[in-house]
Amino acid sequence: MTVPLRKQLVAVAMIAAAFQLVLPWLPISPGRAISDVLIAVPAALAAYFYWRRSRHETGRVRASVLVGTVAGACWSIANLIYLADEIAANATVYLIGNVVALSAAVLLPLGVALHAPPMHGSRGYRALLDLAAVCGALFTVAWIYVLAPARTGSGFAFASALVAMEVLAASVALVTMSQNLPGRTGYAPRTLGAASVTLAAIALTGLHNNIEGHPWFAHGAGGGYLLAAGLTLIASRLETPRETTSADTRSFAGGWAFLPYVPFLLAVAAGATQQLSRGALGPVLVWVLLVTFTLVLARQFLTVAIVGRLAVKLAHQAHHDPLTGLLNRAAFHSRGAELVTAPGTTVLLIDLDGFKPINDRLGHAGGDEALVTVARRLTSAVRADDLVARLGGDEFALILPGDNSADRIRAELTAPMTVRGETVSVGASVGRATADGVRTLDELLHEADTAMYTEKAARRSSSAARPDAALPDAALPSAV
């Protein structure tokens, strides 16, 4: 029986919270040892599940689960090394554990990025701006609470390197989580991203505790590591998104799109607190905040451009036929209603003759190509202020203000065309109605429709009386 994702997340959070509550009551060394074991086990299980999945995956998905395998293995091994150091303290062993743990911390956000489908074009540029801005915001918080207090200590270089890696890791995870991800499979990168952000936050909290002389588990650091390990285990069992073009083509991800703004709010709150407590911000903070909010502004300009382009695209799709690019039925009725109020305006209704044999012989792709050619010819045969639309199937409609251009349209339409390497022709039955300034567009279309079918029936009767009536419609242009 599969446990719902929400219940798994709640269970992991409750276990981590319970462990955090118990830690203050345990001696320091046994507490660390228990923590190492509790973290090593889910990390090892995550590595195993990722490795098992890698044997059945290919491409980017396989790369993502392989990175997850290595990250989980490194994390588990690092905690086993820490456990050995608790049993027999050794500076070299502890250093090796730190190196292996940092490797896992770096690989985890890489796995998050690979879990999500790639981003292209303006979405990719926006993600890069988000990444840079989030890094700046998180660095502001880390500088105030971690790096600034450590400036006078001997471990400042190590602390700076650790902060840089953790800030980058958390930023990559947050930006990836904020992107639009396809369907339920988006849970995998977001859950793994939550693990990466949690691990980065707890690593910085642990560093802060060490600098300020607090217990190692203070401020949620003890249960936080266990929470991150549990989230990684859950993510290893979730399906990884495939590289599809359906949901991935959308630009925004609902509420998740606001996730990168959380670090900005934290940076503002931390900066305000610093200003109120000390009366001034240092030059480092001033410049970091200035660059960060410049990046945020650039990101907003890019978002406005994306939204504008998307609005134009959606408006075009709402009013145009997707195959031919001509106006669709709704747009034709909307725009044509005003044009037919002018007396003398001509309304033409065209139904192609000989189209079905093309569709039957050359397939739907051939039929589509013929329709596109017809649409292009109709457009070239009319003037800029004439209206051309595809009403559906092989039926087209035109509104011609002023001069009647039916003869020019007829000549363009019936010329032979090349479709998928074959020369074919289509004819047309044309119905015509002339506006008198009183009748509506629907009434004129009804008159044109009646005239079109009257002409079609007359031509069929004439063809039946001719000896060459057996010739296929698509072989000869039909007279209009």
From TrEMBL:
Residues 456-480 are annotated as: Disordered. InterPro entries: DGC-Regulatory_Protein, GGDEF_dom, Nucleotide_cyclase, Rev_trsase/Diguanyl_cyclase. Residues 343-468 form the GGDEF domain. Keywords: Membrane, Transmembrane, Transmembrane helix. The keyword Cytoplasm does not apply. The chain crosses the membrane at residues 9-27, 33-51, 63-83, 95-116, 128-148, 154-175, 187-204, 216-235, 255-272, 284-307. It holds the Pfam family GGDEF. Gene3D superfamilies: 3.30.70.270. Residues 460-480 have a biased composition (Low complexity). NCBIfam families: GGDEF. This is GGDEF domain-containing protein. It comes from Paractinoplanes bogorensis.
